[in-house]
Amino acid sequence: MLHSEVSDEIVHEAKRRVLEGMGLIVLHSGHYSKLFKALMGTTCSLNWRESTDKERVWTVAPGHPVAAGLPPHFEIPMEEMYGEPFGIPEPEELVFISWFTGGEVFRSGAAWKRGNGRVFYFRPGHETYPTYHQPEVQRVISNAVHWARPTVRIPDTCPNMPPLEPLPPDPEAAERPTIGHR
Amino acid sequence: MLHSEVSDEIVHEAKRRVLEGMGLIVLHSGHYSKLFKALMGTTCSLNWRESTDKERVWTVAPGHPVAAGLPPHFEIPMEEMYGEPFGIPEPEELVFISWFTGGEVFRSGAAWKRGNGRVFYFRPGHETYPTYHQPEVQRVISNAVHWARPTVRIPDTCPNMPPLEPLPPDPEAAERPTIGHR
Amino acid sequence: MLHSEVSDEIVHEAKRRVLEGMGLIVLHSGHYSKLFKALMGTTCSLNWRESTDKERVWTVAPGHPVAAGLPPHFEIPMEEMYGEPFGIPEPEELVFISWFTGGEVFRSGAAWKRGNGRVFYFRPGHETYPTYHQPEVQRVISNAVHWARPTVRIPDTCPNMPPLEPLPPDPEAAERPTIGHR
Amino acid sequence: MLHSEVSDEIVHEAKRRVLEGMGLIVLHSGHYSKLFKALMGTTCSLNWRESTDKERVWTVAPGHPVAAGLPPHFEIPMEEMYGEPFGIPEPEELVFISWFTGGEVFRSGAAWKRGNGRVFYFRPGHETYPTYHQPEVQRVISNAVHWARPTVRIPDTCPNMPPLEPLPPDPEAAERPTIGHR
Q1: A87 contact residues in B (CB cutoff 8 A)
Q2: Tens digit of pLDDT for each residue in B56-113?
Q3: Residue C56 in contact with partner chain A when CB distance is under 8 A
């Protein structure tokens, strides 16, 4: 299914659920999914090449839960290359950076909170290579799912609130808006 | 003009320009503009009240360019209250926090980079009060415009890139995609 | 015990353990402890007043684990006031902001990673008031202890590393340093 | 001069000046200077190798002032290798990432605010190579000096503050501390 074939309604609904507290794990070419772009607010563009590159993934935040049990670095024998600049907001936590044979680097594992939900992007995973059969890759995904699991579900509201402390008298109170926020 | 009356095309185009490097200053109820919400990726919701609150704006980052020349705190004699939680991504730089008579607090001045552009949100400014005539408020806006001024304009691309270092031979090269990124 | 009476050796050792992965919860006047200042790298100064202020703590990140089970806001009937500006690095996650009767605000709950450990600062707790008997305060501290619990212990190293990919020949190899990093 | 030969008094004084608003540019092995470690609060350790590596520096934040006029990537023909993990706090702005022939990556350009000052770390510069004669390296350093230039000088204080709003009566006022903060 092409990204463009995902309906805006589904994207809107999924985004709402993430902001309420549901986690989201975005893999590989999901960087260009409507949902990830809508949560990031940026282009999410990058450089790419499908060839014979090897990828070496470096753990830059060894204490992060998504890196639990991972070695200082691991290799994926053949992978599509993604290179910087990657059009994302500054990661709140950068966990992995990749090295590619062809001379490029990439922020391969990055975490953000959006609303009450957690978002993790993980780069590897091109469909023509056996990347997802590799234990290190499986471990990252499994860790990320655990890390991003929902702990709250808080619906969106934008309420008119009465004061918690006494206010000066308000002669115009009757004319002021109390419902809706423009 | 209501936020909902701004066409999606204009929002898309303005967002593109911000990401290319144009700055954006968002004031008061602009928190609910389509453009700000699209750049933040979150609800941008808050609590609010139109009454007789006084607002006291505290400078929490006195060394930030947007706070240049501002005192440690200043008061706006009457203002619409905006209260936490404010549905934004973690500010990259938090410059102002407001205190309200009714007992609320709010992250009133916050900065983010999005793509190559800079975004500053500043809370004060309700249309029924003379907020924008106050020198401190004018100073913040003027500082923010200066801080967010464009220094680059970089169009979005997502190119297929040849390697910079020699790669192993690729017998399948002829069959690999070289244009488009899904 | 005064902060100044804590020996530099103990501070150094405790800091080392935090960076290896041990969490740290800093309460109230611990903002001026040698350990917190050494981990933050900043002054950690603030404005303060011991009087009859009420403190209202607002949850600004309701989805954060340290805010689990907490209401949107809670009050501490009498507390020492701490006011902005607070001389800390930008919090990686800002969880609570306080409102004080006297007109001040404060970033009362803030989280950072330092090395492989997690640090949480929580403002309330003056020794002449029964703050620590309040269930909300106990809940925050309990949540923070859970959130900051160690998951790794990684000793500091700065090793000389052999290459993972072939390098060009190095005629001067014999003369190059292989131990110590200046 | 060895890092260990710099006196603690000079480090303390220089740190104070940075926090007051003076900028700081840290180059190459300055990662292990007492001053940089004191401002970061972390180990600042890394992996390293002095051999025949080439370094390719990638600009990951092309809109950042420190990257002004720089190409998407540039090469340093021979350089000491620094590899991840680099023991720093999460950069507030990550501007450059390096690729090395031997298979490593490194966060080569990173920015933080500390107090009222700005700190930029830039990796290249080993003394046995002509790195500082390269125009791109000179451009980065020149940009960084401009970016980090002081705009304020704010001395450290931790004052007892009178309230800005009326407080309830305080029968114990005479016994409360008004000077010093422990």
Answers
A1: 19, 115, 156
A2: 999 999 999 999 999 999 999 999 999 999 999 999 999 999 999 999 999 999 999 9
A3: yes
**Tokens in use for D13?**
């004084």
Instruction: Give the whole-angstrom CA distance, residue A81 versus residue A53.
Output: 7
Asked if C94 and B93 come within 8 Å (Cβ–Cβ), the reply is no
pTM exceeds 0.90 for this model: yes
Domains and CATH numbers, chain B: 3-149 (3.40.50.880)
Cβ atoms within 10 Å, residue C62 = 18
Question: Which whole-number Å values give the CA distances from C12 to A15, C26, C153, C156, D19, in the listed order?
Answer: 45, 16, 17, 13, 22
| H/E stretch holding A59 | strand A55-59
Q: Are B122 and B94 in contact (CB under 8 A)?
A: no
Segment A139-153 shows an average pLDDT of: 98
User: Which ranges in B25-161 belong to alpha helices (H)?
Assistant: 34-40, 135-147
Render C72-86 in DSSP notation, one character per residue.
SEEEESS--EEESPP
Residues of C within 8 A of B94 (CB-CB) are 90, 94
Instruction: Please tell me whether residue C8 adopts helix, strand or coil conformation.
Output: helix
Q: How far is CA B73 from CA B66, B136, D154, in A?
A: 14, 10, 15
| Coil, helix or strand at residue D48 | strand
Q: What angle do CA D174, D175, D177 make, to 5 degrees?
A: 105
A85: cis peptide before it, omega within 30°? yes
Contacts of D99 in chain A (CB under 8 A): 99-100, 103-105
